């Protein structure tokens, strides 16, 4: 079995447009949270008032032109941006092959031994919403010319529809379009897969790439998770809001508080992308790559309990973590740090905390990255994996924001902590009942 290492990371998140911005915000304790767009209230009356929006993006910095952006769903654009950062950090030269087609090769990488494994919860849902909005409102647009100015202005403000139907919409809404676009763009002809396991999608994608490299099926992979949920009408937000999963705390500075006794739901995020370059140890050493850490194991389990609710017994989460330790040849005492799923919902946090307490006691420091950037759904597991890698590299564990009153018997990090991290776990749970966890180790 091949050993698998991380050699590059790239991130677009509500905390910034690169890994360094995200990490600095976490270490400084600067959360991303803002009031939801005012025009969303034209369509519904939300119970939750806040979200974590993405910062302004500059796709051209990653070589994505304005025209190209119109042909790609935002998830693909985020994926390309994060991939370019990860490849550059891994010291891989991106060589342009065809300027018109925007195709490249990766210097020194065998394309048939290199692949892409991506995770996403809903893929190109926003492109679907926007194209359908144009389609459905076509008759209304045709009547605008006959309206008086006041009526026309009001109607146009409600429509929020694009000026034209996007002819590329079919290739934009496919969940596998993100992995496919990355494979085409960088000429990677090995394994190309898409994992869609809701909030655990990024973790499962990384696990899939890890296992393929471990088995010797490929030497190199771009792997991660991506999501974009900011549709112009707030319809995706409304779905979570109606389900009662979002925080309804009215004070912005207190709204997002995983593991705190006063938690009342998660902070909805506009999205993001976490991308990691994974390689076999022998491949990385051969090309003199910077090795950030090693992936020691991946495990997963399934609750078979409820489509939207975690099993309150936590039995399958316990089994997943027990399996992870066994396959990695580690004991609970070896684990320094756990980047928890930590959404901020009552049941999820309670079950997760109890399982951690029973398996690890207070031996492992615990935090929630979602306490700073909200829940990015399919991107969450990959972004949190990157934070775990950085915690190992920098011997630093960021605080869990707003965890002021914690009744659970676990070691929640309340102030940024500087300690050596030898072995760390990043774990994700998802609607549908999928649980996934990765174990990272310092080299």
TrEMBL record:
Keywords: Transferase. Residues 1-442 form the Ketosynthase family 3 (KS3) domain. Coiled coil: none annotated. CDD domains: KAS_I_II. The keyword Transferase applies. GO terms for biological process: fatty acid biosynthetic process. One of its GO terms (molecular function) is 3-oxoacyl-[acyl-carrier-protein] synthase activity. Belongs to the thiolase-like superfamily. Beta-ketoacyl-ACP synthases family. PANTHER family: 3-OXOACYL-[ACYL-CARRIER-PROTEIN] SYNTHASE, MITOCHONDRIAL, POLYKETIDE SYNTHASE-RELATED. This is 3-oxoacyl-[acyl-carrier-protein] synthase II.
């Amino acid at each position: 079995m091949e050993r698998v290492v991380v050699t590059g990371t790239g991130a677009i998140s509500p905390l910034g447009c690169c890994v360094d911005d995200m990490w600095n915000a976490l270490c400084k304790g600067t959360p991303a949270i803002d009031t939801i767009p005012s025009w969303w209230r034209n369509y519904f009356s939300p119970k939750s008032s806040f979200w974590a929006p993405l910062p302004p993006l500059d796709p051209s910095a990653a070589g994505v032109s304005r025209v190209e952006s119109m042909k790609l769903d935002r998830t693909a654009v985020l994926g390309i941006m994060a991939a370019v950062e990860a490849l550059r950090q891994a010291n891989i030269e991106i060589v342009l092959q065809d300027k018109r087609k925007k195709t490249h090769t990766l210097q020194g990488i065998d394309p048939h031994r290199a692949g892409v494994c991506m995770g996403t919860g809903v893929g190109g849902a926003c492109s679907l919403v926007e194209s359908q909005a144009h389609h459905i409102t076509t008759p209304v647009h045709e009547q605008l010319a006959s309206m008086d100015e006041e009526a026309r202005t009001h109607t146009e403000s409600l429509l929020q529809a694009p000026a034209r139907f996007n002819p590329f919409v079919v290739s934009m809404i496919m969940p596998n379009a993100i992995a496919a676009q990355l494979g085409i763009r960088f000429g990677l002809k090995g394994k190309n897969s898409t994992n869609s396991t809701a909030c655990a999608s990024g973790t499962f994608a990384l696990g899939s790439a890890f296992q393929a490299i471990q088995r010797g099926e490929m030497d190199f992979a771009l792997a991660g998770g991506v999501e974009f949920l900011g549709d112009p009408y707030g319809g995706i937000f409304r779905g979570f809001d109606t389900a009662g999963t979002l925080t309804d705390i009215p004070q912005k500075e207190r709204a997002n508080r995983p593991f705190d006794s006063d938690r009342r739901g998660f902070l909805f995020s506009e999205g993001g992308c976490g991308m990691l370059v994974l390689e076999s140890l022998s491949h990385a050493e051969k090309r003199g790559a910077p090795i950030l850490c090693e992936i020691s194991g991946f495990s997963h389990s399934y609750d078979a309990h409820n489509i939207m609710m975690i099993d309150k017994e936590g039995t399958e989460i316990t089994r997943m973590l027990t399996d992870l330790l066994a396959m990695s040849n580690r004991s609970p005492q070896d684990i320094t740090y756990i980047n928890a799923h930590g959404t901020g919902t009552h049941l999820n946090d309670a079950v997760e905390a109890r399982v951690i307490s029973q398996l690890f006691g207070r031996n492992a420091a615990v935090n929630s990255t979602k306490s700073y950037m909200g829940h990015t759904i399919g991107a969450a597991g990959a972004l949190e994996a990157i934070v775990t890698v950085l915690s190992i590299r920098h011997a630093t564990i960021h605080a869990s924001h707003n965890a002021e009153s914690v009744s659970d018997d676990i070691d929640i990090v309340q102030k940024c902590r500087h300690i050596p991290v030898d072995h760390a776990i990043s774990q994700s749970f998802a609607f549908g009942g999928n649980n996934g966890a990765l174990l990272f180790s310092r080299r």
